[in-house]
Amino acid sequence: MAVSATQGKIKATMTLKNALVTIIAAIQAAADPMHLPNPVRLLEEKASQQVVSLKKFRRLEQEKNILLKEKKALEKELNNRLDGLSNEAAVSLKKFRRLEQEKNIIVKEKKALEKELNNRPDVPTLFHGHYKFGPENIQDLSRLISMHLMDKPSGIDRDRIYDCVSKLMSRYLADKPRGRERKGGMGIYHSLSFMIS
């Protein structure tokens, strides 16, 4: 900054010197002394122009310094943002890798379960779309309830199954006091106790 100020002073001095040389040359070249320009007035004009130029130069220097400070502040802010984004990207990459590992584990478990499902023995169909359960097929009702106790298929009506069990239990209890146990009567009892437990 000191070098540029010195250069500005040298330039102003050179301009003044050029103005003096111009004035002297004009004086020497003039034939009529009445048409000579006033040297003092010319010097004052040149000096005022130099002062204005120097003020402009100083103002531009100040603006340049302000812009440099703003540039440094913006660069610092940008670097901070980039550092923050880099950290977020690293965290996101770690999460992505962890989720990818979890996905791979789940896919392996799914394949193992599918293989196990394909290797299990065929299970007979216990529900044929009707709710006609009596003492003769109480074992089928018991198996149906036990197999789907926690996960009821959408095609089975829970209320109708309950009605079947309720009717069979009423029938069993009605036959028991008379001393007549029907064949499969204990199956109803076991079925209900299994369902309750």
Characterization of this structure:
This protein is mainly α. 76% of the residues lie in helices and 0% in strands. It contains five helices and no strands. The protein has helices spanning 2-29, 39-119, 138-147, 158-175, 185-196. Helix 3 (138-147) packs parallel to helix 5 (185-196).
Features:
single chain; 197 residues; mainly alpha; 5 helices; 0% strand; rod-shaped
- Approximately how much helix is present in the residues? over 70%
Strand content: under 5%
Instruction: Calculate Rg over CA atoms.
Output: 53 Å
Mean pLDDT: 76
The N- to C-terminal Cα distance equals 93 Å
The number of E-state strands comes to 0
Structural class: mainly alpha
H and E string? HHHHH
Q: State the helix count.
A: 5
Large-scale geometry: rod-shaped
Instruction: List segments where confidence is low: pLDDT < 50 over at least 5 consecutive residues.
Output: none
Largest sheet, described in full?
Answer: none
